[in-house]
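Whiteboard transcription, Tuesday session. T.W. wrote the structure tokens on the left side:
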């Protein structure tokens, strides 16, 4: 007969892994800001690749035997059959994947979105719509976790030419407009040395989902 393990142990182990992954993201962000080689005109994938380069060079990544990859198609066993698609090109891809194997398989996923609270113009003349980015944060960020297109993980907001609080207020105004007052983002401290982390709760038929949000100001 297989040995039984206290489920609380797994919960604690996952929480520790989650904390490690978020901490590495924040450390990478701080290194990127110090390095100052990014461009606010970048697309999300460019920011993500830049941050992952710092995660790879962090000794903590090697110490914990982590694999970190961008643009991964999650192997999501919890995805309802009706939400799958036979076309591999249309399967959802998530921005950052962490994985390791230390007695059991550990995975953590981060979906990243560019976000701002005011319209601005890139150097090539293209316009950036703040309202469009905030809607997209909800429809292809929050919603992809709620509908389980993405498995367990968190959201990261790359804040461009704005500040975090204004972006949070803008997202919350949209949620209120959509009649989702109970799903607002509220400040929730994840790391002792970083304050721009938030939590939203989403009630589902089976169980509620708690989703963490990490906002990185570039």
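and on the right, the sequence the group agreed on:
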């Amino acid at each position: 007969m297989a040995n039984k393990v206290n489920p609380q142990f797994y919960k604690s182990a996952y929480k520790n892994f989650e904390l490690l992954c978020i901490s590495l993201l924040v450390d990478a962000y701080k290194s990127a800001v110090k390095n100052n080689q990014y461009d606010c005109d970048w697309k999300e994938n460019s920011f993500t690749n830049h941050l992952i380069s710092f995660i790879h060079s962090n000794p903590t990544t090697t110490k914990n035997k982590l694999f970190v990859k961008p643009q991964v198609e999650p192997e999501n066993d919890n995805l309802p059959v009706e939400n799958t698609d036979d076309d591999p090109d249309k399967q959802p891809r998530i921005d950052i994947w962490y994985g390791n194997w230390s007695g059991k398989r550990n995975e953590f996923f981060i979906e990243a979105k560019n976000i701002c609270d005011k319209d601005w113009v890139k150097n090539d003349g293209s316009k950036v719509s703040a309202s469009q980015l905030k809607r997209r944060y909800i429809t292809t960020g929050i919603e992809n976790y709620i509908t389980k297109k993405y498995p367990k993980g968190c959201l990261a907001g790359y804040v461009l030419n704005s500040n975090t609080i204004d972006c949070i207020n803008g997202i919350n105004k949209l949620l209120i407009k959509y009649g989702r007052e109970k799903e607002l983002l509220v400040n929730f401290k994840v790391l002792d040395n970083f304050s721009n982390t938030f939590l939203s709760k989403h009630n589902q038929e089976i169980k509620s989902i708690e989703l963490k949000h990490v906002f990185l100001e570039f």
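Someone added at the bottom: The first strand starts at residue 67 and ends at 72.
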